[in-house]
Amino acid sequence: MVFRELSLPVRLLFYLFLVVAAISILYPLTWMSYTSLKTNEEVMLSPFGLPTSISFENIVEAWQTGNFARLYANSILIAVVSVVGIISISTTAAYGLARYHFTANRALFLYFLVGMAVPTQALMVPSFKVMAILDSWAAALHLPIPLLNSPLAVILTYMSWSSLAIIFIRAYFMSIPPELEDAARVDGARELQILRHVMVPLAMPAIATMTIFYFVFFWNDFLWPLIYLHKHTLRTIPLGIMHFEGKYVSLWSLQVAALSLAAWPPIFIYIVFHRRIQRGLTEGALKF
Amino acid sequence: MRRSKLTGGSEKGPQTGRYDGRFALFLIAPAFFFYTLFLILPLFGTVVIGFTDWTGISFSTLRFTGLENFIQMAGDEFFWGAFRNSFLFVACCLLVQVGVALLFAIILESGPRFAKWFRSIFFVPFVISLVVIGILFNFLLDPTIGIVDSLLRAIGLDGPKFGWLGTTTLNVFVVIAVHIWRNFGFTMFLLIAGLQAIPRELQESARLDGATSWQLTTRITVPLLREVLVVASVITSIDAMRVFDLVYTLTGGGPFHSSETVVTYIYQLGLGGARTQHGYATAIALVLVLVIIGMSVIQFTLARAGRGAVSS
């Protein structure tokens, strides 16, 4: 179908669809943004009007009362450690599966494939039990690693979702011609050096795609922090926003300001890197 | 084509490479460890705990109760309600989300003005946390300050008295609508990727043969898109089946459990409430796992059967 060959009414109808959909997305986000620059009285008087004067009062207050510095620190810690962890272990595992002949290779690959079919949410109760049991064992052995009420519980859970990354990166490794490694080996490179200096740089497109994919999911995840993080000092951004709402029910402008604080940094990053993010998330999902 | 992509062009495993099995196991061991301990073990646990009434973490209290949990399920109206809502979610998303995504993918790929802008805008909600979106829509749907009710009042209509989310019948559909609002752009991107993989020559030659735009779309583009369409449908239905964040933030499953979905019900029974029923919650989770796997298998099988019919 070629757009400019369509009849005028059809073209206008299609533009109407597109514009209505775009407004339905942009309006809520714009309303959120400018409402957080209004005072509470102004919000009450005219909930939809543009602000008469710009006030950063609510933004600043929401940042402080919501303890956003803490929320951001927690979210960054969990997302970064989990992503670095899962990408590292998945890349090495993918390499092992892609390039080494051994008896259990196929069986291990199928074993990792199981994870693709499992909805992780369904595992919440047994996962919690595994974590609680390990936590009680650690306590009994006087190990200083608390698992419950610790970011570690969330990170360990995330690091078990390696199936997609392993399958994705393995497929990419297999498409790389082996001559490159052989050349490096002739030059006397050791196996781990080949992985680090030859294969990882070559597989960077796949690794970057997976990094984006996992980062977005870990960053936005709500369920697992909700399950494991009960201390308010440990809350991630989604958890903090959830509790913020409960605490300041009548102060709409303050709540909306808190939403803006949570939504704008990801939107900004999306605006800058939209092409990479779109590709990363789409390619990652299509591998399913 | 997809299958060969999935396994890297080979079902058999590596075609080149080395035979140092011990080194390979060393490379795989870390991923194996986390995956086994925190995914496979809980999965195994799901199968076992579903047949017990275990509440604590001490193994001495583990007691098998046979099919008791599943019998309880049969008579639990909230369980049926939650499953009904989740299936409603799946059905609506398959029809509306995939439908809208397909329409927009085809329109945008035909080359209207500002196509890139529209594409990028439609994707924005997908990068925002569902909790933020849920709370934002709580405001937009508020009966007094919400834009939706204000617009309705402006044309002389009235929204529900206690708000859209306060009804026990419409609330599920409102949550579904917000879910679709957030996800259709992503589904659209999957389909655009599929459209771009279709060779241009096919459409060109059909066009030269005098096919109309409608014929081109329905007879050539959509049939060629079917593989990606199936993948998009499977992803959409799995996402819809395991929805949690939006329900939790928009309605909390209420009023009176009317908008409970399977995952919110599992959470509420297993971890959220004061009186936890780990065994029963896990039994429901086991059903959910089987339903999700079954749903995917059915869709892939239907697609394969359909493809066979087309090619023969």
Automatic annotation (TrEMBL), chain A:
Protein name: Carbohydrate ABC transporter permease
Chain ranges of the ABC transmembrane type-1 domain: 72-273
Subcellular location: Cell membrane
Annotated Gene Ontology cellular component terms: plasma membrane
Superkingdom of origin: Bacteria
PANTHER family membership: ABC TRANSPORTER PERMEASE PROTEIN MG189-RELATED-RELATED, SN-GLYCEROL-3-PHOSPHATE TRANSPORT SYSTEM PERMEASE PROTEIN UGPE
Signal peptide per UniProt: none
UniProt keyword annotations, A-Z: Cell membrane, Membrane, Transmembrane, Transmembrane helix, Transport
One annotated GO biological process: transmembrane transport
Family the entry assigns: Belongs to the binding-protein-dependent transport system permease family.
Gene3D superfamilies listed in its UniProt record: MetI-like
Membrane spanning stretches: 12-34, 76-97, 109-132, 152-173, 194-219, 252-273
Organism of provenance: Caldilineaceae bacterium SB0661_bin_32
Membrane topology: Multi-pass membrane protein
Location (main, coarse): membrane
From TrEMBL, chain B:
Topological category with respect to the lipid bilayer: Multi-pass membrane protein
One Pfam family in the UniProt entry: BPD_transp_1
Biological process, per Gene Ontology: transmembrane transport
Residue ranges constituting the ABC transmembrane type-1 domain according to the UniProt record: 83-299
Spans traversing the lipid bilayer: 21-44, 87-108, 120-141, 161-181, 280-302
PROSITE patterns with a match to the protein in the record: ABC_TM1 (PS50928)
Main location as per UniProt: membrane
This protein's GO CC annotations: plasma membrane
InterPro entries found in the cross-reference section: ABC_transporter_permease (IPR051393), MetI-like (IPR000515), MetI-like_sf (IPR035906)
Superkingdom as given in the UniProt entry: Bacteria
Keywords from the UniProt entry: Cell membrane, Membrane, Transmembrane, Transmembrane helix, Transport
Localization in the cell: Cell membrane
Family note: Belongs to the binding-protein-dependent transport system permease family.
Name of the protein in its database record: Sugar ABC transporter permease
Lineage: Bacteria, Bacillati, Chloroflexota, Caldilineae, Caldilineales
